[in-house]
Fold this protein.
Amino acid sequence: MKPPPFRYHDPKTVSEAVGLLRSLENAKLLAGGQSLMPMLNMRFVLPDHIIDLNRVEGLSYIREAKGALEIGAMTRQRDLEFSDAVRARWPIMHEALLQVGHRQTRNRGTLGGSISNNDPAADYPAAVVGLNATVHTTKREIGADNFFTGMFETALEPRLYVHPSHVRTDLLRRTETSTYCNYKGYATYWSAISYDAVVEDIAWSYEDPPPESLPIKGFLSFDAARVDVLAELPPTPGS
């Protein structure tokens, strides 16, 4: 299997990477690539642009500061595995590392990539929550309890929410699943029903978000790892 065609971008600084992410439509960030590359090959994701973070300066480090252990987003899992500071300060993280993949994948995989992807099968999100860690972005600091909001979803800004008028809502059925995010409120989940097939919790929406998230009220977002969404739409609030 081969990935779909895309344009490759190779920024060298955080500001350059952020600028590309803000200006490019349908872009994906490449960290270690242990989740993204298989998803590309299987065409589970169809980005127009790939922004490679591997040569961005200043994103890989393990350091102690002000009584806390700080880990850069592009720090390799292999470096964490053999870090004396991680073993001493965060033994639960060290134990989790040993359960993830194998040494070949840990040579490439990053902590930031894993928690941003928030695959329910991954061990790092649970370890980060258990350690009561704080995630630092270019805009704010987010406690781990509020960072992970649902399957493959975090408190990071969404890339696309779709107005229900552009969705076959007759094929969606509301489920009993619900998650909560401090920045967006309670999420309502939807299953897709087609003929005799049912795909559980494939989409979610925020029906009563707080004022700062009102632009996405009622809009739908889909689990990109489990469904292909073909959208021919103008830019929407929240995208």
Summary: The chain has a mean pLDDT of 84. The chain has three domains: 7-52, 66-154, 164-222. The radius of gyration is 18 Å.
